[in-house]
Specification:
By secondary structure, the chain is of the alpha+beta class. Helices cover about 25% and strands about 25% of the residues. Helix 11 runs antiparallel to helix 12 and helix 11 packs parallel to helix 13.
């Protein structure tokens, strides 16, 4: 079933917003096709419930995007109490020997949905399933004090090395990227399409009522130049509200208030209509984005997940991106939400309460809407004279082949205005005990060619306006320092993610109590209370583990 999604913010020259409301549930069988490096382990089985219903008609779409439609009676559409959430389990990134694999390459990820979803589970008194925990999304949920760009590039780069809190033989290398920020007044005009799911499963507190409150937060941001359209679809799609100026806030709120949940939905027609509307209102050099608000439980409609992802990937070439906002419980299809955002060059967030809605759609709206760099890839080449082994923490579904780094045809992640991205590597300095057995005949690395360099960091990106990719190169020195509060806190979040997944291979004897203590001591300046809330979540998880 689908749910309402809101992402909008006033731009300097105005927004065009189209709101699409799905009046039913659509089910998608999904698969993960993230690029994997040659050495990566195979993707684990996807945890998902079978799609229900019989095959029905096909949507009139271009041949490569044709999607099977599923029909289902209203009784089967009713909300079911048994949990049937959909997640994908990926194996952790492996440990690499620098002498054999000195280069690590991956796409950036600014999604934060995993953290809010994990928080939802813990607040409900349940430990999250393993597939719900994505380490990089939990670490990237929090703001950090990173250097801003000063040389005309779209983002600044920060690196730091310090001791690992869970292993005395290793160090943590933190790489931080901070995009240039923009005020709302500086944003380009936006043409936004809100695609909202109002299916039967949305008829609960965490569903449509929360979506409606979230939409109203966006309405409050609109200016006279901005425009919003509201579209609903059940058995067929229809326009509820034609493009309306942001000055008519009462009219917009009234349209939102009238939304009700129930019935069945031909979801594919609504998604196709969303792209049609985005193309019809396309703003050259502006923001053109679909905001999909749903629980992702598409039990009626599209059942071919690959076709849907292909459609999003094709449409992004025309300048229309897709962002997903997840709502709901028990039947939530998190795998679909995260992968659709990836395919559509957008970002994914999970909305578990109104405070999170305000964070994503008010406090961070510029980041949500305005892209400052596209296809951003990171590559780290480790110096074998300084590092013997390493592992990348998280980003399992963002791994790229080494040759993909210089290939501008390979898609990667986008960075929005003001976004920050954090990547953590756990490294074994040469001479320290590592995870792998030493090779009998391996030649000892020779310290040459600037041995004081721990690694070389390369960042490749395309300007937001288009064109060939640009390259940033920064050497990383080998001097470890006293860890900053930001590094210590991000390390606590990384430890927590690994502990939630029940994998003690790397965190060893570090307990949840130790994690909470580390995070508590590293809260620093916490104006929004996010770090303090994290400490409480760790303590909550500790009580649930007993």
């Amino acid at each position: 079933m689908s749910r309402p999604l809101l992402f909008l913010r006033p731009a300097a020259h105005g927004f065009t917003v189209t709101l699409l409301v799905a009046l039913a549930g659509c089910g998608l069988s999904s698969s993960r096709d993230a690029a994997k490096p040659e050495h990566a382990a195979p993707v684990a089985e996807l945890q998902r419930a079978p799609v229900q219903g019989a095959l029905s008609k096909r949507m009139p779409m271009p041949a490569p995007m044709a999607m099977r439609m599923v029909s289902q009676d209203s009784a089967a559409m009713a909300y079911r109490s048994e949990p049937r959430e959909h997640y994908a389990n990926l194996p952790d990134n492996p440990v690499h020997r620098v002498a054999e694999t000195p280069v690590s390459t991956f796409s950036v990820d600014v999604d934060t949905g995993s953290y809010a979803n994990v928080r939802r589970f813990l607040n409900q008194g349940r430990l999250p399933p393993e597939g719900a925990v994505r380490l990089e999304e939990m670490v990237n949920y929090f703001p950090y004090d990173y250097a801003r760009p000063t040389d005309g590039s779209p983002f600044g780069v920060t690196t730091e090395i310090a001791a690992t809190p869970w292993n005395p033989h290793t160090q943590l290398l933190r790489i931080g990227i901070k995009a240039s920020d923009r005020t709302v007044a500086e944003l380009a005009p936006a043409n936004l399409v809100f695609l909202v799911d109002v299916s039967g499963s949305m008829d609960r507190r965490e569903g449509l009522p929360l979506v409606k409150s979230t939409l109203k937060l966006l309405v409050d941001q609109l200016r006279d130049q901005d425009r919003v359209s509201l579209v609903v679809y059940a058995g067929e799609s229809r326009v509820v509200l034609e493009p309306t100026s942001g000055r008519e806030k009462a009219k917009l709120r009234n349209a939102i208030d009238q939304l009700t949940a129930g019935g069945s939905t031909a979801g594919a027609s609504g998604i196709e209509l969303a792209y049609q509307m985005a193309r019809a209102g396309f703003i050259d050099k502006g923001i053109n984005r679909i905001l999909l608000a749903t629980d992702g439980d598409f039990n009626v409609g599209i059942s071919d997940f690959d076709s849907l992802k292909q459609m999003a990937a094709e449409q992004r070439k025309s300048g229309v991106s897709l962002t997903t906002l997840g709502f709901g419980v028990d039947n939530y299809n998190e795998h679909l939400m995260e992968q659709l955002a990836d395919a559509g060059d957008g970002n994914y967030a999970y909305i578990d309460n109104l405070r999170e809605a305000r964070k994503v759609l008010v406090d961070q709206l510029s980041s949500t809407l305005a892209v400052v760099a596209r296809d951003v890839k990171l590559q780290v080449e480790f110096n074998p004279a300084q590092v013997s082994e390493y592992r990348l923490l998280g980003y399992e579904n963002r791994a790229l082949k080494r040759r993909d780094f210089n290939n501008d045809k390979v898609d990667a992640g986008e960075i929005g205005a003001g976004h920050s991205v954090t990547a953590l590597y756990e490294i074994v300095p040469t001479g320290q005990k590592g995870w792998l057995e030493p090779l009998r005949y391996a030649a000892a690395p020779v310290a040459e060619n600037k041995p004081a360099e721990l690694a070389m960091l390369r960042v490749r990106y395309k300007p937001a306006a288009g064109g060939d990719s640009q390259l940033i190169e920064r050497p990383i020195g080998n001097q470890a320092t006293k860890a900053s509060d930001d590094l210590r806190f991000s390390a606590a979040v990384a430890a927590f993610a690994q502990q939630l997944k029940g994998d003690g291979r790397y965190t060893g004897s570090m307990s949840l109590q130790d994690t909470a203590a580390l995070a508590r001591s590293a809260r620093g300046d916490d104006p929004f209370g996010l770090r303090n809330e994290f400490v409480q979540l760790v303590e909550l998880a500790q009580s649930l583990k007993h």
